[in-house]
Write a structure and sequence with these properties.
Keywords: Repeat. By secondary structure, this protein is mainly β. Helix content is 4%, strand content 39%. It starts with 15 loop residues before the first strand and ends in a 10-residue tail after the last strand.
């Protein structure tokens, strides 16, 4: 295996400022705060509103994420969490263990969904980064306060 330059993301107009990898997918944030993704997509973890895998990074064109406003993105094994400059949090992909912070376990999100319950907890904090394990999500806010993606109902794992 030999490393190769990715022509999609190495142009004078596009500079990658952040990457995150899941088990079989990768997301990229550019200097213009756009989100690109590629890889295996069986749970919608790429955010393209379908389950078609992509070999080449493709711009995520989804309502809420298409306005050059992505600050942080982080991948779990089969899911992705995105933080916008505005502080809004979006999630997509697998949700069998409640890792997306939505009310319904087992429902994969094929398109990015704004996570309202999470915003209520961190509305007075400035989130700095989001981290994952296989099926678990956390965020760090200014001052190193730690917030776990909250379960939205008693049915979700704790």
């Amino acid at each position: 295996l030999t490393p190769r330059i990715n022509r999609t993301l190495s142009t004078p107009q596009i500079k990658v400022t952040q990457t995150s990898c899941g088990l079989h997918h990768t997301v990229f944030i550019t200097s213009t705060n756009q989100l690109f993704s590629c890889g295996f997509n069986d749970n919608g973890q790429l955010g393209h509103c379908d389950t078609r895998s992509r070999n080449i990074p493709e711009l995520v064109k989804s309502e809420g994420l298409d306005q050059h406003q992505v600050k942080v993105a982080s991948c779990g094994y089969y899911h992705t969490i995105v933080l916008k400059m505005s502080g809004e949090v979006y999630a997509f992909g697998r949700n069998d263990k409640g890792q997306l912070g939505i009310r319904v376990n087992g429902v994969a999100l094929l398109e990015p969904k704004k996570i309202e319950t999470y915003l209520m907890i961190v509305q007075d904090s400035e989130i700095d980064r989001i981290v994952h394990s296989a099926s678990h999500s956390r965020s760090f806010s200014f001052g190193s306060s730690l917030s776990q993606m909250p379960p939205s109902s008693r049915e979700m794992p704790r």
